[in-house]
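Chain A, query sequence.
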Amino acid sequence: MRTIRLWALGLVLAMPLPTAKTGPADIGDPPARVARISYLQGSVSFQPAGDTGWSEATLNYTVTTGDRLYTEQASRAELEVGELAVRLSDATDLTVSDLTDHAIQLGLASGTLRVSIRQRPPDDSVEVDTPNGALTLLEPGQYRVDIAADSTTVVTVDRGGLTVSGGGVSTALQGGDAVRLSGTDPIQISNVVPLEQDAFDRWSADRDRRLVSSLSAQYVSPDVPGYEDLDDAGRWDESAEYGPVWYPAGLPAGWVPYRFGHWAWVDPWGWTWIDAKPWGFAPFHYGRWVFGGSAWGWVPGSLAEPPCYAPALVAFVDGSQVAFSVGVQAWFPLGPNEPYYRWYHHGGEYLRRVNAPVISNVTTIVNVTNITAIHYRNRDVATTAVPTPTFRGGQPIAPRNVRLTPEQLARAPIAPHPSVVPAASAASGGRPAPAPAAPRPARITGAVQRPAASPARAAPLVTRRPPPPANPPFATRQRAMQAHPGRPLEPQQVENLRAGRPAGPMRDQEFPPHSAPAPRAAPASRPSARPAARAAPRPGPEHRQ
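Chain A, predicted structure.
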């Protein structure tokens, strides 16, 4: 094996390591990328940022800065972040310490982790922090990290390159290298024989092949999590009006977008849709939905524009204007060229970024001051409504759907957001679960032994850069939201809560403002019925506007 190179820390600092980048578009914006829980097997627990309670992890849940996953024995989980996949073996404790447009920082306290990077932009920082050192992944490749029972860390580079830093030294590793890290100040680094491939490695390789061979990658940006799940759940057709359109198969009676799933509260976006279908991530956080003939189709949008995550691409209806004995919350999916307006804090460029892939002229949306003047094609055919307690509690929507008459819809104006403060159950990430138990030590190939450590007593991690401060507990944020129901706290309000001060007032104007309903017009023309299935040609940008 090649000799591992060590440098003094002063020399290491001269290396051009990637750092988190902040540009004008980032100031005040929520991140354009998130992690998706894309695979669950066995018992996997989830802990949302800022809280100490645990819940059962939920497929398709949006994961972001501060969230934590724990896999029990004989369990696995996977996170997708664009062209990067993070896979957890059993007895693994992982925190997403930071996730922005230009930085991914993971904290591995115990267990085994694989990271697969298909493409890595030069300004992207990928860091895995362990009890013995911080790993900076520098190249596309496959990486494995094992936290052993003797409080050491084994790092294996199948392909790619990384640096190990901390405690005054740094080590460069390349494909084929494997080392054991022990101690922290300084780190002791020794060569080891790479572990023999095990079932976890083979499963991870199968997941990689699935991504690379996906037909849907021809039509959906590889930075959109979940595109590969569309392959076996529907088919692609070509529309003269919209370009490639994906039609899901095997839908139940009464299916419309954003009805079969539930709402969750995920900061910093607030109300976020969690779909119940295994393929239900990409089509509900990117693109638009269109009804053609007798079928719903998903339009992914232009490949020429970078994708930007949205919590739910819907328009909300003011349920207070609907005559029911209890309040209702209602919404419908946005169609092609219909603008999406956020209900959370963002910077000046965000509206353009989040709408650019599906709006042919994004400059027009900034000047809209009355959202009720927009004529929405899906309002009459796909509005879903539920009693407010169902919405507030994050409960399944379809069993409690309330049918609205055309007359009720006609007098209900469009609303910027639901004016509902979430219950704790909507912000927990899933059904309540007990705290993970301490795993039994399990020996793996190569004499690396898993730790018998529970998340409650995880060792401190060595980091290259400090992660952002933790969120205040949800109960604290929930009390602060009472003044503006349905709107997540703004950054300065969160900072005030961290410092033990009152949240203070919101600064953002609610956009667009509430207004009286505009006269209703006939729905926009719909595409013709779905043509016979065929493989759509790879579209150029001119076909995707």
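The chain has a mean pLDDT of 85. The CA atoms of residues 44 and 480 lie 31 Å apart.
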